[in-house]
Amino acid sequence: MGCNVNFSDIIGQNEVVSSLKAVLRDDSARHAYIFSGPEGIGKRMVARIFASTLLCSGRNSVERCENCQPCHLFSSGNNPDFYVVEAEGASISVDDIRRMQQDICIRPMYSGKKVYLIAEADKMTVQAQNCILKTLEEPPGYAVIILTTSNSNSLLETIRSRSIIYNFRKNTDEEVKSCILKKELKELEGIDFIVSYADGVPGKALTLIESEDFRLNRDKAIEVILKLKNSELICIFDIYDFFEENKDNVDSILDIMLLFYRDLLIAKKSGNENILINSDKKDIILKNVDGFKIGKLIGNIAAIEEARRNIKQNANYQLVIEVMLMKLQEEKI
Ligand SMILES: [Zn+2]
Predict the structure, then answer these.
(1) 63 CA → ligand 1 middle, Å
(2) CA of residue 76 to ligand 1 center, whole Å
(3) pLDDT tens digits along 299-323
(4) Would the N or C end of the chain have less CB density within 10 A of its end CB?
């Protein structure tokens, strides 16, 4: 995979970016870095920019030249001084780390450095972590190892203490929006609700934009909510089918339902339609808001959160969903 982005393309993450630029400016790269932050926040992209700039032989302080051989090789994904370790299955094994260690013994071919990126480093088995620790204790002078993780707590303390840790923060909604616009997507309808759902993570926003399922599921989930409200007697079992089909991404369905009830609550309490997350569904929300009592909406939100907790704790899925649906339908004063 190539790399055609630069630090100037990174939106937000000012602390991380300015600190990495200082490292490049002073030529003071250390041997190990941990980039920690939510999945989809851009850790790997920043790691690749940092790596390609470190390897560039014609770099001007903090920007790579894009013309030298290391830059060309990097862009085409063939720079032998850049090595990526990532999980092929569920985990990064001790063998994966041993292969990397064999490579690390070979001196750099084109640059003064060799950069190793271990993506989703928390997927390393304990053995793998202990194995890499040996390298972190005595790395060759030219080696720079970057570990990215959304869960740095699952890395051994001994690994963390030997690394410089950079924390990637969630972006603001405005920043997420800029990231989306940067990708020059043509269809930007409904972008506001996607930004809200993305919760400060640009990668999540981009995934949602591309996901046809997300839009369909949102429409269906809203339909479920309205059905539960408007019918005296409906068959919970029919509605359950939708949840059965979406067992694997029930978390996202529950999110959608939560945010819809949240919008109804906001519309009810404040009447301010400008702060609705589902801004493109404003008409439906305003049309239905009178039919809900505040206490009922709060109760429904609690019922969904309870269902989510129970599913996480491996309770019987069908039972949890049916109980939730009954609570959502129940009249409450
Ligand atoms: Zn270059």
Answers:
(1) 9
(2) 13
(3) 999 999 999 999 999 999 999 999 9
(4) C
